[in-house]
Amino acid sequence: MIALRVSAAAAVLLAISTPMHAQTYPTRTVQIVNPTQAGATTDILARVLAAGMASRLGQQFVIVNRAGAGGAIGTAAAARADADGYTLWFGAIYTLSVLTKMKETEAGYAANALVPVCQTVSNAMMIVVRADSPYRTLADLVKAAKAEPGKLNYGHQGAGSIPNLAIEEFLDNASLKINAIPFRGDPAVITGLLGGNIEVGGLVQGTAAAARDKLRLLGIFAEERHPSFADVPTVKEQGFDVAPVSFGGLMAPTGTPEPVIARLAGACEAAAKDEAYAKAAKAGGQPDNYFADRRVFAERLARDIAAKERLLNKMGLAR
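Request: output the structure for the sequence above.
Response:
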């Protein structure tokens, strides 16, 4: 009888403890791990979001930069943290959908190691050529590539990078053969283009925008035209059903209590829709629809993990 009473009391305590924890959370500083260097676009956005969440939840939210290994170091640190809501992660889900397939052992975490809180980042990729290129449209490029398979070369920021995967998905969809040439970052791709070493480049939208006077933007990989590039048609509207984007936002270690996730999600949404964040997002080249709630974020993440696995397997990059 005594044991029964203790068990009943424990059950009641368990039932009320989680909601009470959610009501009082957070009671101390929350750290947000960002797997990029200070000053990067996601770092800037993370800091603005953290300030907005701090004002709503009454505790400090501090950014901890853990760059290295393409984002794997910071992501692993967050994935291994206690799932109590006091260590979060902010970045691009590339580290989950791509790195875990290319470097599963080295990464040290699984694709499901983090759970979405809210999406606040969406970066499109672009396919570009030099401003004086004979290819004035994507159709021109496709025609030339089909006429002489394997003659043209495109540059990207590294094997498995989102620009690399975006172009490969396009080439697969269009049944084209254009050779992939890796460079050390987007600026090096632009140098290669301007120097005539490659004919085509796959770039992140922000890099393409900064060098727009030297480039011709043939298409943007997105579901709809970007407000900052209203004159650039999407690859999809030009007849190729591909629209890969690099998206991300705030996530927490898997196992974080649901009420805590819900409380974080509410604060994250409010902060992401603040004028301060919207202004920072626009300055960082984000589209108007950069935000998505945790349900939509989770759905997109699941689709991206599956899509990247298929593509990486086909490219021979998955382990």
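The longest strand covers residues 114-130.
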